[in-house]
Amino acid sequence: MRANEVADGIYRLCANIGSEVLFEGIWPLPKGASMNSYLVKGKDVAIIDGVGDWDGVPETLYAQLDQLGVKAEDIRYVIINHTEPDHTGWLRSFSSMNHDFEVLATARGVELAKAFFGLDVAFRAVKSGDSVDLGNGKRLVFEEIPNVHWPDTMATFETSTGTLLCCDAFGTFGAIGEAFCDDQLDAAQLEIFEREALRYYANIVGRFSQQVINAIDKVSKLDVRIVAPGHGPIWRRNPERIIRLYQRLASYAKGPARPLVTVLWGSMYGNTRKTLEPLLDGIAEEGVDAVVYQVPQSHIGDILASAWESTGIALAMPTYEYQMFPPMAVILDELGRKSVKGKLAMRTGSFGWSGGAQKELDEILERRHMGWHFVDPVEFRGAPTVDTLEQVRRCARQLARQVRESALPDSVF
Ligand SMILES: Cc1cc2nc3c(=O)[nH]c(=O)nc-3n(C[C@H](O)[C@H](O)[C@H](O)COP(=O)(O)O)c2cc1C
């Protein structure tokens, strides 16, 4: 992998993460992911963010520094936009190669970097508006964007080129090959990265959507000509494209999103499964699309992405030991933890003698402050009758109609 010039005097260094890795130990990466680091060369040299410390990853970074003719000891400033180890793990080995550099981060970032790495170097806490002059026209200005995605997060803005080095903000999953910028990716590749942006957003930053909106407000006051995130491609031809996408994804936190229903179902002996057909028919009859996930067979990372962009959620699951089919309870709790809020919803499912699934569902929704709006549930004993199936279809139509009416039009952004 080669270092790439992003703009005059600004270079992207990169290590990819393979599809065999679960990001944060949780989230599948079917298309991998990239960890982007940036080198800014003025009279002085600064490196902004870095890579993890596993399996020879820092060595990938050092090989790219070699290509640029930069030695470790040439680096005067290490700028930590965000202390998460996928961007900072390399500092352990770097600090054994260079003993004379200064670490710049927010006050919170300094505190975290000391706790994680205990580096014996100079630290400088910076705040919004502070800057570093690297000479030769290169000037870095800092803007705090807390909680996108850790509390320490800031963005670094290089003024001469209008390059926003924003770490986790405006990132996507997806490994990067030779083409590293939007101006080198064709329409199909860009669409793939936008889908990867949705999965990244829902899995990693969705919970911090208000902070994302605050961050967008802040950076919109800068003359941003290039968006250079810590993950995914650089947006140089059309930086607005990724900013607008993030604005849209953040807005989904209120509930209304695409005219789409995510259907989550689980069944032990097939009684609840029988409701799937009328449920999907009902949604389709209203001209609304549905995406179906079986639980527990589907991964929460995929379900979360789908739920995030859906205006409606349909649940089909039976009662199990006086509560909900357990894997569905796990999924719903995680949707709550990740702030999938304000959705339109329906529920159906079989029980044998007491019921109980609905009670646990209500508890989870309340505990996680999810604010979902349900049409009346269709709960039935044993196998569904013809009448029950018809009721499910009607219920699904009602949900789909509401979804169609509440979904956000594409033209909003
Ligand atoms: C292990 C197990 C525990 C169950 N616990 C309850 C229960 O507490 N209350 C109840 O009403 N039904 C209970 N049932 C009955 C199921 O809810 C019922 O068989 C239902 O039809 C299963 O739906 P399915 O065919 O979609 O899996 C239980 C069934 C199993 C297998």
UniProtKB/TrEMBL annotation:
One of its GO terms (molecular function) is oxidoreductase activity. It comes from the Bacteria. SMART domains: Lactamase_B. InterPro entries: Flavodoxin/NO_synth (IPR008254), Flavoprotein-like_sf (IPR029039), Metallo-B-lactamas (IPR001279), ODP_dom (IPR045761), RibonucZ/Hydroxyglut_hydro (IPR036866), Rubredoxin-O_OxRdtase (IPR016440). Residues 261-400 form the Flavodoxin-like domain. Gene3D superfamilies: 3.40.50.360, Ribonuclease Z/Hydroxyacylglutathione hydrolase-like (3.60.15.10). The keyword Repressor does not apply. Signal peptide: none annotated. The keyword Ligase does not apply. Keywords: Hydrolase. Pfam families: ODP. In the N-terminal section; belongs to the zinc metallo-hydrolase group 3 family. PANTHER family: ANAEROBIC NITRIC OXIDE REDUCTASE FLAVORUBREDOXIN. This is MBL fold metallo-hydrolase. It comes from Syntrophotalea acetylenica (Pelobacter acetylenicus). The lineage of its organism: Bacteria, Pseudomonadati, Thermodesulfobacteriota, Desulfuromonadia, Desulfuromonadales.
